[in-house]
Design goal:
Blueprint: E1 2-3, E2 8-9, H1 23-37, H2 49-56, H3 60-72, E3 76-79, E4 83-86, H4 101-108, E5 111-112, H5 124-140, H6 144-147, H7 156-166, E6 178-181, H8 183-195, E7 202-205, H9 210-219, E8 223-226, E9 228-229, E10 232-233, H10 235-244, E11 249-252, H11 266-278, E12 282-286, H12 290-293, H13 300-303, E13 308-313, H14 314-317, E14 325-328, H15 332-345, H16 351-363, H17 365-388, E15 401-405, H18 412-421, E16 424-425, E17 427-428, E18 440-444, H19 451-465, H20 469-472
Parallel strand pairs: 5-16, 7-8, 7-11, 11-12, 12-13
Antiparallel strand pairs: 1-2, 3-4, 6-14, 9-10, 13-14, 15-18, 17-18
Helix pairs in contact: 1-3, 2-3, 3-19, 5-16, 7-16, 8-9, 8-15, 10-11, 17-19
Length: 476
């Protein structure tokens, strides 16, 4: 065995137990077992990933995932240009919260590419400042935030903070037109109770946010799918459907559409606003990603302000745990009606969450956090484009997800099943489709804490996408 500057170069080979579970977990478990047995010592340099893969006769990405899992357990550390070294200091990995995607991924052995939320930003100083501002609420809000009910629809201070947050999109918004709701789902629930018509459907994109699909099904609201292309909802199809059977509502996502990442261009937005006026449609603009996109395009609420309810969720833009949304209403009367519906359905948004959001917005931390999230998102999107761009990946640099139409004869079910067997979780188009579902997948980029884990999952997808189903079939 050769000595390096920190320890030994070793010809280590893990003991593999056939059928014991995913290979990458078996290798990570073997590293942990050999550390405990003394076969691996602190500072030992493990074999290069490609060399170990060749020795074991397995795919390189499997070893890459195994080393990433060992890093998560703080069993090894990677040093750029030097290799992977054993850490036998007894350090423990940071515990994942029960029910979190990290916890479930670890327990199931799945690289979770199903979820769609902000990725973990790498700025530790900014993270500390966010927590410090949360702690600072004790001196200003005190126990009132914990022990008293607050105003339904938000206090004036919280609504003014919402106006400040939405100013880049809606610069003329007044606080008496703003309502704070417990998340976008709470806003959609309240608005459906107000505007659903028993004899008229709700127009939606043919690929629709699953939360709204569930809500419409729960309330018995019929959905009218409107055709889409690479630029999102097609106004001509909306007009044609309105002429046949006018809907009561249009619910759509104009920025970074979930799941396709499409952003509706200005001329289409203007056409949609004109159609809504012609057929007297109320618009529910689910703009969860508007601040994230930062594209300068006017929202539908700016083009048809008299009929649009603009829903801006902080769960997608900043932190899912806040569970609140700002809803810009057409006027103060509309805000009062929505406030009454919120009171009847969900009572109020969390006063603590609203106070945190207000604090972050007023101190500028919300904007800094948004920029940090954008930077991490763009890095992950660049990685996805490099690995899957040639396979027809549809994405946007600021989206937390991407859309992958399938080629080479793959069905979405077979492709997703094959990925799950390899330890990769994705979402098929069935979760979004109103009517027939295309052969496509949504890939989420945020759940893996490390880019290396994301890269491993994306490489598995890229390897499978370039094969035909018949060549990938191992059944004999």
């Amino acid at each position: 065995m050769a000595e390096n500057e920190t320890g030994r170069d070793i010809e280590w080979t893990p003991r593999m137990v056939k059928g014991a579970g995913p290979l990458y977990l078996t290798i990570a478990d073997a590293i942990e077992a050999d550390i405990r047995a003394g076969a691996l010592r602190h500072g030992d340099r493990l074999p290069p990933q490609r060399a170990l893969a060749e020795r074991l006769g397995i795919d390189f990405t499997t070893v890459s995932r195994a080393y990433a899992e060992a890093r998560r357990r703080v069993l090894v550390e990677g040093r750029v240009g030097m290799g992977t070294f054993v850490q036998a200091s007894g350090a423990k990995p940071a515990p994942a919260m029960a029910g979190s995607s990290a916890a479930s991924a670890s327990a199931s052995g799945i690289v979770d590419l199903t979820m769609n939320f902000p990725p973990r930003m790498a700025d530790a100083a900014l993270t500390s400042r966010l927590w410090a501002e949360v702690a600072g609420l004790e001196a200003t809000g005190g126990m009132d935030l914990l022990l008293r009910y607050q105003e339904v629809g938000g206090t004036r201070a919280d609504r003014e903070a919402g106006v400040q947050w939405l100013a880049p999109c809606l610069p003329d918004l007044a606080s008496d037109r703003l309502v704070i709701t417990p998340g976008a789902q709470g806003a959609l629930l309240a608005l459906l109770t107000l505007f659903r018509h028993p004899d008229r459907p709700v127009a939606v994109e043919a690929l629709c946010y699953p939360g709204f699909r569930s809500l419409a099904g729960h309330m018995g609201a019929a959905l009218m799918p409107v055709a889409m292309d690479g630029d999102g909802l097609i106004p001509e199809d909306l007009a044609a459907q309105c002429a046949r059977h006018p809907p009561a509502l249009l619910c759509c996502t104009p920025n970074l559409h979930n799941p396709t990442t499409a952003t509706i261009p200005l001329k289409r937005r203007e056409a949609i606003a004109a159609i809504a006026r012609e057929y007297d449609l109320t618009i529910l603009e689910d703009d969860a990603y508007g601040r994230l996109a930062g594209n300068g395009l006017p929202p539908l609420a700016a083009l048809a302000p008299e009929r649009t309810y603009h829903i801006a969720s902080l769960s997608k833009a900043l932190a899912p745990a806040l569970r609140m949304a700002y809803v810009a209403c057409p006027d103060a009367r509309g805000a009062a009606r929505l406030t009454g519906a919120v009171r009847a359905t969900t009572s109020m948004a969390s006063p603590l969450g609203a106070a945190i959001a207000t604090r972050w917005i007023e101190t500028g931390l919300a904007e800094q956090t948004l920029n940090a999230i954008r930077a991490e998102t763009e890095a992950r999107q660049a990685l996805a484009h490099r690995l899957l761009g040639q396979d027809g990946l549809r994405s946007d640099p600021r989206a937390y997800h991407a859309w992958l139409p399938l080629d080479h004869g793959w069905s979405r079910g077979d492709f997703a099943s094959r990925l799950r067997h390899a330890g990769i979780g994705v979402v098929t188009s069935d979760a979004f489709a109103i009517g027939s579902a295309p052969e496509a997948l949504r890939i989420g980029f945020a759940a893996p804490l490390e880019r290396a884990t994301l890269e491993t999952g994306l490489r598995e997808i890229a390897d499978l996408a370039c094969q035909s189903p018949t060549l990938a079939n191992l059944i004999v």
